[in-house]
Amino acid sequence: MTTTETPDMLRRILDYSSRADPYPLYAELRRTPVARQEDGSYVVSTYRELTDLLHDPHLSSDVRNLSRPMPQGQGDATPAFINMDPPEHDRLRRMAMRHFGPPHTPGLVTGVEPALTSAVGSLIDDFAGKEQIDIVDDFAYPFPVSVICHLLGVPREDEPRFRVWVNDLINSIDYDPKTDPKEKLEKGVQARKDLRQYLGGLLEQRHDRPGDDLLSRMANDDGPDGRMADDDIVSTANLLLIAGHETTVNLITNGMLTLLRHPDVLQRLRDEPGLVVPLVEELLRYEPPVHIIPWRAAYSDITVADTVIPKGSQIMLMLASGSRDQNRFHDPDRFDPDRRDNQHLGFGSGIHLCFGGPLARREAQIALGELVRRLDRPRLVADPPPYRRSPVLRGPIHLHVEQAAG
Amino acid sequence: MTSADNLQAFKRDGRIVIVGASLAGLRAAEALRGEGFTGSLTMIGDELGEPYDRPPLSKQVLTGWVSAGDTTLPRRRDVNAEWLLGVPATGLDLATNIVRLADGREIPFDRVLISTGVRARPWFVESEAALDGVFVVRTREHAEGLQRALAAGPSRVLVIGAGFTGSEIASICRERDIPLTVAELAPAPLVGALGAMIGEVAADMQRAHGVDLRCGVKVTQLEGDAQGHFRRAHFDDGSTIDADVAVVALGGIRNTEWLRGSGLAAGVWGIACDTGCRALTLNGLITDDIFVAGDVARCPNPIYEYRLISLEHWANAVEQAEVAAHNMVSGQADRWPHLSIPLFWSIQFGVNIKSVGVPTFADEVAVTQGSVSDHRFVAAYGYRGRVTAAVSFNNAKWLDHYRNLIETAAPFPPPCPTPDQPADMKPVPVDFPGPTLLAQGATVVVTGHDPGERRVTAAQYHR
Ligand SMILES: Cc1cc2nc3c(=O)[nH]c(=O)nc-3n(C[C@H](O)[C@H](O)[C@H](O)COP(=O)(O)OP(=O)(O)OC[C@H]3O[C@@H](n4cnc5c(N)ncnc54)[C@H](O)[C@@H]3O)c2cc1C
């Protein structure tokens, strides 16, 4: 396998016109598993090479290891562990994980299940009488937001406030200097500040009056690694809040879209609700919410598929392409909820494997199961639906669905 | 089986016998059915009951979290076999293709898979081994007995041997707050498997958890009271220790005695085979109808200079079973070699220890990631300048990378730094116990002069 330059291919993938169906382009991209770009960065698109890299200790998540600076820095705020390397990453992730899952908090996900079910139920109740529903605005968006607020301990009445911040923040990540007003970027910077300040304030209260939420637990727990610094708690909360947003929204929306495109599977899910478990796994492979890890840095020279990626290079990991690699998955472009061998890259792999994966899975399972059970003969209004701008966190911006009246 | 027709006929109506009905045996049986073998399948096992899993026996079962009866291996498919359980095989006749059982029955076969594994090495003085309170841990019954003894709240437990099993048992005793002495002949725990450097880490771990660890000593005698209950142990330095439970964790003995006289290359190191899991005869010739898998197999690994290596690893048993099963029902051209890189894991004192490769195939070791004092690190092993193995303590996610390094014969020490590289990653000698400690003696002698009469005969079986 040699390195050739296929900058056109990547540009076409990033171009908005490819958003609705990037998969044929991924297939072309995979012909060069490790493709060097004109700017010196590397695009990796095949399963084997992606998993090798994700388990390679020379792959760094810390921007400071890039030889070229990132176009938009995160500012001077403390980075969250997602942007750190071991051992700092391990320590912070471990400290946060104590409160978020097994072995120390085994019941977290199952504990919120009743809340998930009731949140989903009440959102669907509101569909009553409506002929047309936007799966995004009316359902997939408000649902995970309320869940993560509940978990973190963010008061319900503050939801609208930081929903704006998160929105501005995400928009600023998708900022395109050629077409977007600079205002968008500035709004993002401000939102980031506001959000940190807001979370800092909440945290302060939790120091005095701890509750049962994640913020309280992180603020008051002394584990074997000591106590988490306030700055790190704010960064972690920030990360969870944002990651808990777009990704789950896209997972649910992509899921509903896929089901509407596969009416036979939709009907099966209605008849056998247990199917939702492997179905969500297959969704994570077939229509994942995270398509690309846009940058990683080569800490040292890294050899993948006989290509040496020099130290300091930017590496772009095309996860969604890897999950459709015909050399790894049988008939990869087929949506097959009965698929057995399904080690997809939907949550990444290695030490940065999605922290919220177990929660996201449950959210999607409950959401899709209930939607399918309660929507009456749903029909897609437009196929393809309009997409968000981002090629990284890819999903429809609206998904209009009609249901039978009454 | 030469022609395709013969093979088809064999797959349809052939007779396959599996001797040793545990992990490797069961997985092979499942794989045989998965490969479309519809003939008769006989499973011979000397243990009663369904095949069960052993790793939990020294872990969850001893804490009481899982009962010994709940370790039954999950079935992946119906194997539709005839199960002859509770009776050992006592002989294998290659001339007539018959397995002999202890009860006198003779079971004919077209192909046979041997997966008789290992048994625990008992305490060397039989009367002392028979004392109440003296345990080994290999079977469900052993684990059940020891769990009961631990639950009774012993005043002190003595673990003899600090290999993986002994160390895991030690860990559990401390978890249950039972006073504990560990005696090990080597200078530190785990030294035989992982070398002196990791041994020191393991020793620190044990001491930090309140283990009374005594290294470089030999237990010479187990003393019982008038009721025949174990009470005291004597060491070769003249000291004694009072305890009411002794766990003998001195490794295993391969179950090959029943093959004595069969003509197979079977001995204390296991049964030699090729990478296709076909057994070798004493003379080093490959058989075609006798296959081996699991702890009892001794298989050449091209990555390790084609040396015959026997492993007591769960994953190895499963993979070998699958390769053996495939090859049992495939023609020459379609056979698979068993080429996987060994993988092993253990949990002790809250630390997840995992290894890839063969750490004993090394002359040097270097910590390449993390921090030894935090018990979170990866150490790479090298042999003459190439990576041959790696061990992680609470850092297992990186091991795939090290497996790549092993598979590609990457240079040792690995030249590229990682973000979590320790300040000092200088390689040190790996320091395994000298050959005298591991010596098992010769197993064969060669006789005859002319090429037509040169033969190997077994020199010495089983100590
Ligand atoms: C306590 C304990 C903890 C372990 N922990 C780990 C771990 O953490 N990680 C890991 O990788 N591995 C671990 N192992 C090792 C792992 O369990 C073995 O590698 C695995 O069991 C090997 O399977 P096998 O089928 O080859 O042999 P075995 O499991 O030994 O099975 C052989 C079977 O054959 C039977 N048999 C023997 N002779 C005859 C005969 N003549 N006739 C009929 N039947 C016969 C035996 O009774 C037995 O049932 C552990 C083992 C033990 C005992």
From TrEMBL, chain A:
UniProt keyword terms in alphabetical order: Heme, Iron, Metal-binding, Monooxygenase, Oxidoreductase
Region described as Disordered: 60-82
Pfam families referenced in this protein's UniProt entry, alphabetically: p450
PROSITE patterns: CYTOCHROME_P450 (PS00086)
Highest taxon in the source lineage: Bacteria
MF term (GO), any: monooxygenase activity
Family statement drawn from the similarity comment of this UniProt entry: Belongs to the cytochrome P450 family.
Protein name (database record): Cytochrome
Organism encoding this protein: Streptomyces griseochromogenes
UniProtKB/TrEMBL annotation, chain B:
The FAD/NAD(P)-binding domain, residue ranges: 15-321
Obligatory cofactor(s): FAD
GO molecular function: oxidoreductase activity, acting on NAD(P)H
Protein keywords: FAD, Flavoprotein, Oxidoreductase
Annotated ranges, domain Reductase C-terminal: 344-414
InterPro entries xref list: FAD-oxidoreductase/Apoptosis, FAD/NAD-bd_sf, FAD/NAD-binding_dom, FAD/NAD-linked_Rdtase_dimer_sf, Reductase_C
Listed GO CC annotations: cytoplasm
Pfam family, one: Reductase_C
Protein name per the record: Ferredoxin reductase
Source organism (scientific name): Streptomyces griseochromogenes
Organism placement in taxonomy: Bacteria, Bacillati, Actinomycetota, Actinomycetes, Kitasatosporales
